[in-house]
Amino acid sequence: MGSDDTPKVCFPVGGMPAIVRAIDAYKRGGLKRFVVVVGYMAEQVMAAVATAHPEVSFVYQARAMGTGHAASITVEALASEGYSGTVVVAVGDMLTVPSLVREVLATSDNTAANAVLTALPKRSRSTAGRVVLDRSGNIAGIVELPDIIRARNTGEGLGVGDETLAADVVEERSDTVNASLYAFEFTALREALSQIRPDNAQSELYLTDVVEILARKGPVEAVTVNDATDLMSFNTPEELARVSEVFGH
Question: What CATH number does the domain containing 124 carry?
Answer without folding.
Answer: 3.90.550.10
